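Notes from hallway chat w/ T.B., transcribed later so I don't forget. T.B. wanted the structure written out for a chain they're using in a teaching module, and asked if we could keep both sequence and structure tokens in one place. Agreed to drop them here.
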Amino acid sequence: MNSNNLQDSGVKLLCTGLENIKCELEILVLSKCELTEESCSALASVLSSASSSLKELDLSNNNLKDSGVKMLSDGLKENCKLEKIGLSNCSITEEGYKALASALRSNPSHLIELDLTGNDPGQSGVKQLSDLLQDPNCQLKTLRFLGTAAHEACQYVTGIVSKNPLLLRELNLSERELGDTRVNQIAALLQDKHCKLNTLILCRCSITEKQCLILTSALKSNPSHLRELDLSGNQIRNTGMNHLCDVLKDSHCKLERLRWGTFTYKNQIAQIT
């Protein structure tokens, strides 16, 4: 039923049928159906019903907000057989993430897959998710809240520093052969609104001119919070240096300190000519 003008009134009627003991529906897709928190109240009642056979629910691209997610979370705590739920692009912030984390720590929850891409949990929401995955009561196996490349970068960095980079302000990946794939992933991470990194150190990482262009493109993006970048010990050459100079002149770039070779640029102190 995705991409229909179903609205809250339609979902309420649908839920009446879902609560029928004879209903055996297991997958319900309600993406882009003009739904609000009112639909969540009706759906929460279905989820907590002992007679419900629903195992997959997709509510992505609806304006559910935190209030709607809190209602759904209540439905996940009791009798719920739901295994997968999609909540991407539903205007959820840290309060909604907190409610979901609380629900998924409860023993009755059977949820193994949760998609939250396109929402903005802030740092506290990210921490809620990180703590959740370490909780023995949580059954979750797949959690999505980053784009694919940023997610891969997050896993890679976590494996190196034993901490989620989304909770860090400084990241040091010096003396690692990153290659094009990893540099692309790190660039995607820098561009993601969840990432609040201020300092990135990539000394002696064999960064090439091509990879330098990838990084500079990320630094021009509005979401990037990076203030300091250290590329010393890499053979960037003239083309790479030109890319770096261009990004420093870009109004979207928030970089204040840049190092390469023996040169250090400090915003409002040194000038690039």
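Follow-up for T.B.: The longest helix spans residues 148-161. Might be a good example for the class.
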